[in-house]
Write a structure and sequence with these properties.
19 helices; ADCK3_dom; Atypical_kinase_ADCK; ATP-binding; transferase; kinase; 5-stranded antiparallel beta sheet; single chain; 3 domains
Length: 469
């Protein structure tokens, strides 16, 4: 990340006040509800083909309005929008699904910063004096911005180059308002994903976002991971300056490196290596250390000059129990062994089954295999967007009876709230590898962490040697 990068355009003033923010969400929900009811009434006299087309159009407009509205609000409202980006819109045609995924991705990737003058007062309060009492130089241009805060470069009085993450003024109050209003979105989420049990997921989101607002807690997460990877041969985690960090200001070492788009322009071998490092970092932390990092999007890592990859942002973190990780391992093992009975047992133990009556283990195995085979089953694969779209077209090409059977089985599944960050990590890592067009035997690499199998690659051997010491 370079100081001379062009800063993104600054955002307009954020909406303030619980009444104003609740009115925005409530107005959107009410308007969409009326339009959805109108569509359903009109569909009674339409042909099945035209009714399906109208439903697709209404879904696309619903998601579009959600993205536009939530993107303006930041805070928890934007986080809810980011949650939507993890939902599979299986009933939409592949082309429309791709467009919606791209639009939802803007809530993760295209966040404009706020003017620095609005942050300066907050920083003075947090640091106990003017910026000059802590920093010899401070770049007022933000080079990264997210839903809760933005990042600036600076130099400390003792001469260290650092990055300073500053929480937006008033965002804590806005988040509190949004979390109180999040229940208003339940009807919309139910329309977008009928089988999704949104209420406990929103409760989990409230817990995680509440923690994400506390930069002192984030600093603890980052310190813990940094200690775990200190001296690692290909993974780097920036050190935190705890002496300069507060609840709303987080200071850590500046890391020189290239952004994700530069990594995408590398040759095939280098892209494959970069992709394997990304995979190993997130899957290793989850299945070896029982730490789920829920924000693995491309803006959170840099390719360093020494070819290590630096991983940033530790706000969205969850520690998981050994029982939860054992259940995830058992699901992957059952899919790899093509064992329907073992899969049903693993899904039950993991709390994924809403209703066992009428559950078809064979169909469940086919569905689960389609979702996780890329990392659960050994075999070399170059992940691409075209590969994902081809799978979606194969599903769409199935006859109506088979699609109905799949839909019936899907309705019997439930997503345990504590697995939300696991699912989010799996999906986002797959998206990143697809954007890199990275090739590897992901199943063999994952088996090191899932099943304790020997290292499958040169990087795996280097990492095993590091952790053995």
């Amino acid at each position: 990340m370079h100081a001379d990068d062009d800063p993104p355009p600054e955002a307009a003033r954020l909406p303030k006040g619980r009444i104003a923010r609740t009115a925005q969400i409530g107005g959107m929900v009410t308007g969409q509800g009326l339009r959805w009811a109108g569509m359903r009434t009109a569909n009674r006299v339409r042909s099945p083909e035209r009714a399906a087309e109208a439903r697709d159009e209404r879904t696309a407009k619903l998601v579009g309005e959600l993205v536009d509205q939530l993107g303006k609000m930041r805070g928890a409202a934007m986080k809810v929008g980011q949650l939507l980006s993890m939902i599979e819109f299986d009933e939409l045609p592949p082309e429309q699904r791709g467009e919606l995924e791209a639009k939802l991705a803007t809530l993760r990737d295209d966040v404009p910063p706020v003017p620095f003058k609005r942050l300066e007062k907050l920083m003075r309060e947090e640091l106990g004096g003017p910026l000059s009492s802590v920093f010899s130089d401070f770049d007022e241009r933000a080079f990264a911005a997210a839903s809760i805060g933005q990042v600036h470069r600076a130099t400390t009085l003792d001469g260290e180059d650092v990055v300073v993450k500053v929480q937006y003024p008033g965002v804590a109050e806005a988040v509190d308002s949004d979390l109180r209003s999040a229940g208003l979105l339940l009807p919309l989420l139910k329309r977008l994903a009928p089988s999704l049990d949104a209420k406990p997921l929103l409760a989990e989101l409230r817990d995680r976002i509440g923690e994400e607002l506390d930069y002192e807690l984030e600093a603890q997460h980052q310190r813990r991971v940094e200690r775990r990877f200190r001296g690692h041969p290909f993974i780097s985690v920036p050190r935190v300056r705890t002496d300069l960090s507060t609840r709303r200001v987080l200071v850590s070492e500046y890391v020189e490196g290239e952004r994700f788009e530069a990594a995408r322009a590398l040759d095939e071998a280098q892209r494959d290596r970069y992709g394997e490092i990304v995979f190993r970092f997130f899957f290793g932390l989850l299945y070896r250390d029982r730490i789920a990092l829920g924000d693995p999007h491309p803006g959170n890592y840099l390719l360093r000059p020494d070819r290590r990859v630096a991983f940033l942002d530790y706000g969205l973190v969850r520690d998981l129990s050994a029982e939860r990780i054992d259940a995830e391992r058992a699901i992957a093992h059952a899919v790899r062994a093509e064992d329907p009975a073992a899969l049903q047992a693993a899904l039950t133990a993991g709390g994924y089954l809403r209703d066992a009556d009428g559950f078809d283990p064979e169909i469940a195995l086919t569905m689960t295999r389609g979702a996780i085979r890329w990392y659960a089953i050994p075999g070399e694969r170059r992940l691409t967007r075209e590969r994902r779209e081809r799978r979606a077209r194969e599903i769409d090409a199935q006859d109506a009876e088979l699609r109905a059977a799949y839909s019936d089985q899907a309705s019997r599944f439930v997503l345990p709230p504590e697995t939300m960050l696991i699912r989010r990590m799996h999906v986002l890592v797959a998206v990143v590898l697809s954007r890199l067009r990275a090739n590897a035997d992901w199943g063999a690499i994952a088996a090191e962490y899932l099943h304790g199998e020997p290292p499958a690659t040169e990087l795996g051997r280097a990492e095993a040697d590091f952790f053995s010491r």
